[in-house]
Structure formats: structure tokens, C-alpha cells
Amino acid sequence: MSLPSVQTKRCVQLDGLRAVAIILVVLSHTDILVQGGVANSIFLGISGFLFINPFRDNYEARFRSPVNVFRFYLGRAVRILPAYYIVLLCVFLITGFSVIPKEDFIKILYFGEPYMHLWYIHDLVRIYLVVPAFMMLYVIFSERIKIMRNDLFGAGFFALLAVFVLFVLRFGFLYDFYLYQFLFGMSAAYVFRFIRRSERISSLRNNKAAGTALILLFYLSVVLTAEPVLSRFIPSYSGIFIGWDYPYITSIAMSCLVLLTAIYTDNILGKVLASKPMLFIGKLTLPIYLIHYFLLDRLTTDYRILSFICVFGVSLILSWVLNFIIDKLTSMITKKCYNQGHGS
Fold first, then answer.
1. In a domain, 307, yes or no
2. pTM value surpassing 0.85
3. 210: domain range?
4. How many angstroms separate the Cα of 140 from the Cα of each of 65, 121, 144, 149, 159?
5. How many domains does the chain have?
6. Per-residue model confidence as pLDDT tens digits over 155-198
7. Is 4 a domain residue?
8. Among residues 199, 154, 161, which one has the least CA distance to residue 59?
């Protein structure tokens, strides 16, 4: 049975995939499986994929309206900024300027310059600032040019745009701006929507064995291309980190993983990603990312696995507390604004 042309159901497996990515980040920073660059590609691939929201038809048309663009900015700000500034405040209250020097601390308050692991938030904010402008132009032109409303054209366009951006950044000495990874995620979203709207997705999902094998192949490649593993098989790759040194290939591969995860939701891997523990971790990826790095020097031991367990466990608990506080504050502010708007 084929899916309807409009589907609003959220793919929770992508939240589980976020959990995989944040686990990979902490594993990388505790020197167990150094694949932080791969995790970064997963995060931005998912963000680009969900930016298009391929589970609904023509969802990107909302960017035609300046009001909706403002709502997008507001939604991203509410999601990112409270956790970001609360973590920075806590770091300052506990350590003063011993962890983050004063001059750097001032810069990261207004995203003036990336610092330590906070470079990712710096990049993410810049990406969210510029991508709606791309989409607004694309939507405006697609109203006049029929072929631009084709999903495969959209996939190709944003893939080529990603290549162009990567080329400009590489030769313009701005290589640390990972906009192209987000664009590859958008391209994957258009491919997914083409598959869904062409009613091919049911036949793909019925072949669970092939889907599971493909996804496992991607996960296996993440492990095998980690520097400690790869350098054992190919000594010349010693000191080479695939995610950072080959970002183009990595970005395409991880965007394909995002696409496959969205397609094959009913196989055993999809069920693992949709499990309560994975969804719980996936919901807290942002605060875990912000917090864990500041714990590395304080919770390290001579045993890397124990270090990972300590850092990840404490980060998870603190992230849950932080998320609880932000949810309560957001709920209170929203309720107060609602009551004032209705004259209560």
C-alpha cells in the first residue's frame, strides 16, 4: 500500500540518528573512535533534510512569506540560544576565565569568532541565517520556472550548489564553514520526497533485508575508516581523519545514511533508533554537545572507556536538567504572552 501524497508524521528515527552522532562525538573526543568529522556531517545532513521537511509536499514554500521566515528564525533561536548562553554562564560562574579567556569569551557571546568545540554552534547559526535566503530565491524562481518544481531538479540543484559552495570555500580560505553539508542534506530530502510522491517508497520498505544491509554498510564504514583502524590496514593513512580530510565524500555518504534512515523505518535498525533511550538522547544532543567538552579535563581517567562513560553520563544528566529548566521557562513565557494577548 502506498503512502498518501501528504504525510505529516515525524520520522523519529532521525532523532535516534542524532543520538548516534552525539555518541560518536563523545567517543571521538575521548580518543576511542575519532570520527568527529563524520558526526558533524550527520548532524548537518539531518538539519538540512528536516529544513525541507520532505514528509510534506512543498513545505519549503513557507519561505515565500517574510513572516514565516521570521518565525523560522525565532524557532531556531529558541532552540539554540537558551542552552548556549546558560551553558556559557555556568562555565563562567564555575571557572571564571580560566577555561575560556576573557577576550574569547566576549567574542563567542555574539558569535564573532568560533572557539573550541563551539565552532559548530557558530557555523550552525551562520547556516540558519543564510539558508532561508537561498530558499526564498529558489521558491520565487520556481513559481516562474516549472522544472524547478520537480523534486529531482531540486535534489540536483542543491547538490550542485553544495559542490559550488565547497569549491568557493576551499579556494577562498573559508573552508571551516560547513554550509555544503547542510545543502547535501537538503538534496537528500528532495530525493526522499521524489520517492515518496512517486509511490516507490512502499516497494523499497518491503525489501527490509537490502535496506538493513545498506545501512549497516554505512555504519561499518564509519568504524573501519576511523584513523586508528584504517591506519592499521593502510599505514599511509596514519594521521588522516576521513571526516575532516575528505569532507566532500563524507558529506555525501552521511546524507545518504540520513536518506536511508528515513526510508527504512521498520527494520531492526529503525526500531533501535526509535527506542526510548535513543530518542531520549537524541532530544538532548544540543546540550550534550555544549556541555561534554568542558568535562573532558575534569572527568578523564587512564581508561578511555571509563572516561567516555563518565563524560557522557554526566553530560546526559546535566543536559536533562538544563532541558527541563528551558522547557519550564519557555512554557511560562509562552503562557504569560498568551494570557496578555487575550486580556487575561
1. no
2. yes
3. 12-16+38-273
4. 10, 29, 7, 11, 19
5. 1
6. 999 999 998 888 887 666 555 678 999 999 999 999 999 999 88
7. no
8. 154
